Protein 1
Amino acid sequence: MSALFNFQSLLLVILLLICTCTYVRAVAPRLIDRNKQGFLGLFWMSARIGERLSPWVSMACIAMAVTLLIQ
C-alpha cells in the first residue's frame, strides 16, 4: 500500500524527511541552503523544522518507533 493512503506510513515518511534534511544540513549546509524556493525548498523547510522543533521531532520519532515495534 502506498504511503499516501496509509496515515501511519505518511507520518513515517514525513518524519524521515525531516530527520534526513536536518542531518544533511548539519553535515553539508550549502547543499540545503542554496535551494530555498521552489520544489527543492521543501527540503530547506524540512531542515528548519528539524532544527527548531528538534525535541518534538525526536519525541515523535520515538513514539513512531514504539508504535512500529508494538504492531
Note: The chain has a mean pLDDT of 88.
Protein 2
Amino acid sequence: MPFIDVQTNLPASSFSEDFVRKLSSCAAAALGKPEDRMNVVVKPGLLMLIGGSCSPCVSLSVSAIGVTDTAEKNKEHSAKIFEFLTGELGLTEDRIVIQFHELQPHQVGKKGTVMSFL
C-alpha cells in the first residue's frame, strides 16, 4: 500500500485528476504494486525552496512496504518517477527531490486493523 505525497510550489491549476491518475499508474509500475493499492496526495501552491531557489519545484515522498529498502531499488524507482515528473511538469531534474521511506506492515492501518493482519 504505497503512499505518494507531492509537495510543490506550482499552482493548483498545474494539476488535474488525470495527472494524479497518471502519477499513480507510473508509481505503481515503478514499485511493482497494484494500482488499486496506491494512495496519492498532491499539495500545490506551497512556499518552497530547493537548492537555494524558490523557482518551480517538487518534493515527492514515496512510502511503501517492502520495495523501498535498498539503494538499488530506489535508484530504479527514482529514474522512472523523475522521467514522469520532468515530462509531465516541464521541470528539470535539479528542481525535483524524492524521499523514499520503508514502511513495515504494522505501520499501515486499513479496514480497522493493520496490514500485518490483512
Note: The chain has a mean pLDDT of 97.
Protein 3
Amino acid sequence: MLVETASGPTQDQVEILEYNFNKVNKHPDSTTLLLIAAEASLSEEETQKWFKQHLAQWRKSEGLPSESRSVPD
C-alpha cells in the first residue's frame, strides 16, 4: 500500500492520477473520483484536490480560463 508523504503523493500515486487525468477524464464524477482515489490509495478529498490543481495548471498551459468548462478538453 502506498503512503502519502508530507510533501504530497508518491511518484506511483502521481502516475495513477496523471494517467487518469490524461487518458480517462479531466472532470471525473464522484464515482470515478472514488475509484481513482482507491486505486491510488488516497482519500477522495486528496484526489479531488489534486485534480482541481492539475486542471488549473493544464488550463493555464493551454491558455484557457481557469474555471470555464465551455471549451472541450
Note: The helical segments are 11-24, 30-40, 44-61.
